[in-house]
Amino acid sequence: MRPISATLNSREGWIQLKSGRNQSCLLTHKKGKKWFVAGTSDGVIHVYNYDNRIQKLRSFRAASDCFITSMAVNPTRSYVLSSAYHDIKLWDWSKGWECTKSFVQEHTDTVSQVAFNPMDTNILCFR
């Protein structure tokens, strides 16, 4: 993907890159760690190390037939949230990026954003 536009949200810690072919990539990172995750329009999450140079560590399918709409990194625990269409998944990087919980929405709206509650990171928020 060759990005033609980028959106930066420094308050929430993500960057969205878009290309001209309706493809997008959502990047988020863990403060104090040397990696970031990228969710792509084909439903795959890629994990990259950026210690000395950028190196892909792992890729895994987070959603089938739809794009990653949002991701959030837990500031105190080893979790990453991802959303795609109606699904929210909780990934644990300390367990080899295992999906430890899947939340399926009982409504017709697409989940457009996920986040951890900054006051209590055991609570997740979505819209």
UniProtKB/TrEMBL annotation:
SUPFAM superfamilies noted in UniProt: WD40 repeat-like
Chain segments annotated as transmembrane: none
One biological process term in Gene Ontology: intracellular protein transport
Key words, A-Z: Repeat, WD repeat
GO cellular component: COPI vesicle coat
Protein name per Swiss-Prot or TrEMBL: Anaphase-promoting complex subunit 4 WD40 domain-containing protein
The organism of origin for this protein: Aegilops tauschii subsp. strangulata
